[in-house]
Amino acid sequence: MKEVFDRRWRDRCRIEQVGIKDLDRFIRSHYLGKRPAIVLLSLAMLCDDEPVGCIVFSAPPREIEKRYGGTTWELARLYLIDEIPRNAESWLISKACRWIRVHRREVRYLVSYADPSVGHQGTIYEASNWIDDGRTDEGRKTPRCDYYDARTGKKYGRRGNMPDDAIVERRPRISKRRFFYPMNRKGLAC
To answer: pLDDT tens across 82-113, in order?
Structure first.
């Protein structure tokens, strides 16, 4: 059975604000493999002063601030090396929420997405007291699709981004689960 992220681990770990370039090795290891477009905050998780993971916040999709009614950041990347026990993600999320609460008081909400197409169900957000806010494509009249080049298998979000000689294959996009966290919640650990 895998080790638990208990007090012995927590006492050895901390978070620290760093530049996004300092996290490139973690970002490349993340399943998306690239940085978000607009990075607002990048925090490294250190264990015994060695970087072991990261959490990155970015600008959310345009409609999100309107949806929640205030300044909202997206938890866009979360990555820990395999040697860190699995339940450390909720600890890292909690520490990041506290950091934002202290240093960036204008942020009223956090939002993140769990992508079922890669096996993510949102368990870490539920464990961190985030609120399930449905699916990304609820209420859409037409389902969104991703485009793939059948020759290479490479995925493209838009047809216009594909090479001219691509063999286009359209696949329906799997709706993501959306979770949000109001930063003014009292008595709950993020």
So the answer is: 999 988 999 999 999 999 999 999 999 999 99
Contact 174, 113 (CB under 8 A): no
- Tell whether 169 and 121 lie within a shared domain: no
Residue 46 shares a structural domain with residue 111: yes
Q: What is this structure's pTM?
A: 0.84
Q: In this predicted model, what pLDDT tens digit does every residue of 14-31 receive, in sequence order?
A: 999 999 999 999 998 888
User: Is residue 187, in this structure, part of any structural domain at all?
Assistant: no
Residue at 190 is within a domain: no
With respect to residue 44, please indicate whether it lies within any of the assigned structural domains. yes
